[in-house]
Amino acid sequence: MHKILSNNQIAQDVYLMTVEGTFEGRMGQFYMLRAWGHYPVLSRPISIYNLEPDSIQFLYKAGGEGTARFASLRPGDSIQLEGPFGNGFPEVDGKTALVGGGIGIAPLFYTARQLDKPDIYLGFRGASYMTEAFAPYASELVVRVDANLLLDVDMQKYDNIFVCGPLGMMEAAARMAEGLETKLYVSLEKRMACGIGACYGCSVRTASGNRKVCSDGPVFQAQEVAWHEKLSV
Ligand SMILES: Cc1cc2nc3c(=O)[nH]c(=O)nc-3n(C[C@H](O)[C@H](O)[C@H](O)COP(=O)(O)OP(=O)(O)OC[C@H]3O[C@@H](n4cnc5c(N)ncnc54)[C@H](O)[C@@H]3O)c2cc1C
């Protein structure tokens, strides 16, 4: 168990939790979080938002039963963390852009810190949040509220683009990148149970067969994903 240092609401239903300890992780990986005993049965997958030598941060949206419990935690309370899990974003060369929609910005902050000043595009519904944190790590920062963020992204300018956001946004980005040399990577979100590849609950169809979001992903090359099947297996 690890001690929560802070757990602050930073936008409607969105919280930033800081947990004390020395943790590992690469950009785009996630932890399984749990702050209860037997019920709810499953821990919740949450991406690494930030890592410091003595703490880890998670940016999460409280909605269902588990995340609502996270939101009620106070400094000094305990939380169980398992991880890091998943493949994370790949190490890449060349000009890179990060594109995040809503809570999909969560894995992109630590990613931005690991890269050499990528261009960063952040889109929100209603109101933006955390954008000032990204600014020092961006070559160019574009923030859009209630607009189609992808219209701002000239994909041909980039060697690599990392996208995390609503499924429709990632699918639209994949369509836009078709035929370009730009490598587009998406971080997929699927309901998952174990987080370690044992239960197959988070399988998606790809060009190379069924793959598990938790252990083969969550990051996939966009053209590998069978978008027309809406990620079902
Ligand atoms: C690899 C990965 C990284 C993620 N990173 C973040 C993050 O950084 N911040 C954030 O706010 N959210 C993130 N999510 C989504 C987050 O895990 C779900 O919103 C959360 O599990 C929902 O739990 P709940 O208690 O709110 O909902 P409930 O409805 O109570 O959840 C019920 C069950 O369904 C699962 N579940 C429900 N919705 C999702 C979903 N969209 N994706 C995966 N499992 C789901 C839960 O884990 C739980 O097992 C991530 C998901 C994945 C797969």
Automatic annotation (TrEMBL):
Its cofactor is FAD; [2Fe-2S] cluster. Keywords: 2Fe-2S, Electron transport, FAD, Flavoprotein, Iron, Iron-sulfur, Metal-binding, Transport. GO terms for molecular function: 2 iron, 2 sulfur cluster binding; flavin adenine dinucleotide binding; metal ion binding; oxidoreductase activity. It comes from the Bacteria. The keyword Nucleotide-binding does not apply. Residues 1-91 form the FAD-binding FR-type domain. SUPFAM superfamilies: Ferredoxin reductase-like, C-terminal NADP-linked domain, Riboflavin synthase domain-like. One of its GO terms (biological process) is pyrimidine nucleotide biosynthetic process. Coiled coil: none annotated. Binds 1 FAD per subunit. Binds 1 [2Fe-2S] cluster per subunit. [2Fe-2S] cluster binds at C194, C199, C202, C214. This is Dihydroorotate dehydrogenase, electron transfer subunit. It comes from Paenibacillus dendritiformis C454.
